[in-house]
Amino acid sequence: MTLNPHGKLRAEHAHPAPVYPALLRHKPANPPYPDAENEPASPMLAITSLLSPPHTLRINNIIKSLEEKFGLDDVQATLDPHLTYQLAGVKKLQSLKEVLADVAARTAPFPAFTTGLGVFPGERPVIYIPVLRSDALNALHQRILQATAPLCLRTDKFSGPDCWLPHISLALHDTSADLLGPVLAYLNQETYNLKIIIDNLAILRQEGELFVKEEVFKMGEKVLGLAG
Fold first, then answer.
1. Would you say 128 and 168 are in contact if contact means Cβ atoms under 8 Å apart?
2. Tell me: the pLDDT tens digits for 91-140?
3. From CA 111, how far away is CA 184, in angstroms rounded?
């Protein structure tokens, strides 16, 4: 997930069949709630899980090497590697924080796994590490969607359960068809089988040309309290 410098969504999701349009040009067909058309516009926020420090270091080292070898650095506008559950515009940020804090507190941390490399093709291909969907990850995604639904003025269709493809971006927006082959050949020298621990929910927001943490919620606090 990233946004452009104007706070709009950037395209990270495109499949060959069907072709996913650029999120930047995507307008929701119908507002999720009857009054949504009359609500003031709000910046799009990303609901995510951040990677642990060791995995953050590894992913950022890969991203840095792509800058050094191929000049690809646009993905660095988002400083914290993450996987995204939902992109949404909401009227009340504080209400969003409250519901996400509750979802996080009621969800025990769990492992998730990555494998291989993926590409969203297009004029500017996106290169990413897929995060495998599991029962636990799907359940968390569903809880987030249900909890945030009453707050959303708008969202994107790629956050829906049928289209959602969790991933960790390595390169986007400044890639090209000519670079795709050499970059993949370079990345193919390593494997990307990671075990990551999903132990937080985080809101990312735009700050200038960067996209930074608005707030991070630790997972499992109410679960641990009940166990104790």
1. yes
2. 899 999 999 999 999 999 999 999 999 999 999 999 999 999 999 999 99
3. 27
Residue with tokens 């997972």: 219
The CA distances from residue 40 to 10, 26, 35, 91, 205, in Å, are: 21, 18, 10, 8, 18
Query: Cα–Cα distance between 130 and 12 in angstroms, integer?
Result: 13
* Partners of residue 89 on adjacent β-strands: 44, 154
Strand order in the sheet with 126-130: 118-120, 126-130, 167-171
Angle between helices 53-70 and 177-187 (to 10 degrees): 130
- Under DSSP, is residue 170 helix (H, G, I), strand (E, B) or coil? strand
- Asked if 125 contacts 89 with a C-beta cutoff of 8 angstroms, the reply is no
CB 172 within 8 A of CB 123: no
Cβ(12)–Cβ(21) below 8 Å: no
Collapsing DSSP states into helix, strand and coil, what is residue 167? strand
- Within its chain, how far is the Cα of 84 from the centroid? 2
Q: From CA 228, how far away is CA 223, in angstroms rounded? A: 9
**Is the pTM here over 0.90, yes or no?**
no
Look-up of token digits 């996106």: 126
Cβ atoms of residues 3 and 10 within 8 Å: yes
Rounded CA separation 1/87 (Å): 8
> Which H or E element spans position 103?
helix 93-105
| DSSP conformation letters of 121-132 | -SSS-EEEEEBP
